[in-house]
């Protein structure tokens, strides 16, 4: 009991005077004693404190401040020190089916002989056809942590192939794609912000043409963020020395503003940044800084709105506490964190002496939206999912047809989907019970042409090449290209 009260005292804000604190704690212990003695069912102290009192107090603050019991805190520490393992294969996950699109050189998948187009039928004896999408994804994630037995069907061979793969540590670069969208205009897809992200972005830019580029599309969509220093380094590639990048403010945290270092020579070509609802944290810091300084046009959908600093405090008995201690603000003063109706955030705003104005302006006087997250300069939503597109995706028709096509055809970079190939695909769909009407087929013809080419390239030339084709029908990328003209 004494150790739990110690935890409780540690969590009570120091702002309370001793005269206020003592009666509050006394009332709490009296209430707990009555519950322990008189509740209809026995109440364990762990249940009362770990699942009740402490989480209940934190719930009044914000959704990101959490208490960890000993088991949870140990898992957190292991997660922080763990390395990512895998087999080095890129797969297409369909309902009840997993098809290999690419095996990366030198990885367990490539060494074992698994090839693009192979369909994985079972993993460690679990038949994939019997699993729903959620179960499939969970099984794939678990299998990467230990040796796995795979039953594989290869289109060109009868019978089942069996492989035993041992996972290895995978070094996944945060810059996933780097290619030219058109002559002189580059595209970089950044999936996370890690220690090497800034260097990898610079390498990608130099590979595409460096300072000779006429423009760059920096894709931060679905990027959940990562290391703050990587965001600062990334913004510093495009901003002038001395310009603000982000400010950290909190009630008990000293205010600190990060600026571009003096000895940098930024790139000067036109820039467009893509974001969406899954762009968060470091992604929002970069997008917000570039937008506030009028250095880039931000395109896409409003970002997630996660701009907070979390500090982890070890407590007694192997427990721990993750607490929101500060918030991130863009150069114009916008809070990146989306508003929450909590006393903690109100205190943070009051303590940081923020101006209550709701109008924020960029360096050139353009008004930008505040109140959490980054709102793009050009709001562009993804193409809507039509009935036919949903059916084709759910059935895996593109992937299956591509596998069958590559069984008899060799594909090079200059491959194009011809009208004859589209007609053959339409016959293939009819054989599998999918028969769209004439107007429906005509309306989706260009989409189908692009998707077929993408899937064929995925398996024949690698998913990076397939992404280049997919960019041609991506409305957000195309809008960025239009702006960069």
Q: Can you describe what's shown?
A:
This protein is an alpha+beta fold and 485 residues long. The chain folds into four domains: 2-59, no CATH class; 85-169, Pdz3 Domain; 175-310 and 325-379, 2-enoyl-CoA Hydratase, Chain A, domain 1; 387-484, no CATH class. Helices cover 39% and strands 20% of the residues. The protein is built from 17 helices and 21 strands. It has helices spanning 2-11, 18-38, 45-59, 70-81, 108-112, 133-143, 197-208, 228-235, 282-292, 343-351, 387-395, 397-408, 419-431, 438-443, 445-460, 463-470, 475-484; strands at residues 66-68, 85-86, 89-94, 97-103, 119-123, 126-127, 148-153, 161-165, 168-169, 175-182, 185-190, 215-219, 244-249, 256-259, 271-275, 297-300, 308-314, 320-329, 360-361, 367-368, 378-379. Strands 3, 4, 5, 6, 7 and 8 form a six-stranded antiparallel beta sheet that branches. Helix 7 runs parallel beside helix 8. It is globular and about 85 Å long. 35% of the residues are buried.
SSE diagram, text form:
Elements (H helix, E strand, L loop, with lengths): L1 H10 L6 H21 L6 H15 L6 E3 L1 H12 L3 E2 L2 E6 L2 E7 L4 H5 L6 E5 L2 E2 L5 H11 L4 E6 L7 E5 L2 E2 L5 E8 L2 E6 L6 H12 L6 E5 L8 H8 L8 E6 L6 E4 L11 E5 L6 H11 L4 E4 L7 E7 L5 E10 L13 H9 L8 E2 L5 E2 L9 E2 L7 H9 L1 H12 L10 H13 L6 H6 L1 H16 L2 H8 L4 H10 L1
Helix pairs in contact: 7-8, 8-9, 12-15, 15-16
